[in-house]
Amino acid sequence: MDEILGQVLRSAVWERLDMLTELANRADAPSLLSVARSELPRLTEGWRAMLSAHEPDEKGNCPVCSSRWRQQKAPCPVWRAAYEHLVAGGLAPQQPPRHALRRATAGAR
Ligand SMILES: [Zn+2]
Hints:
By secondary structure, the protein is mainly α. The chain is 64% helix and 0% strand. The longest helix has 25 residues, at 29-53. Zinc ion (ZN) is lined by residues 54, 62, 64-65, 72, 76, 78.
């Protein structure tokens, strides 16, 4: 992918995220419900697709984040970000206790 196309793609994604944030902050309840019904499945599918690519291999390394010279042990930064944003950051009813968080991010997979 050339540099311009990459830039266009990244801008489009940032704009989409900005639009969703704007909607979450300002839309009335019926519009928000409609957006949530259409956009939440797209967002969860996006996370699933991204996380599937970052599933650890049989040696416990992320195949995407690892290079020939440096192996990235699971959980890789993508999985850590997912945990941070989806579990620790607000969707979960409460923060897990500190020891549970450490165990989850230490990654014995
Ligand atoms: Zn990864």
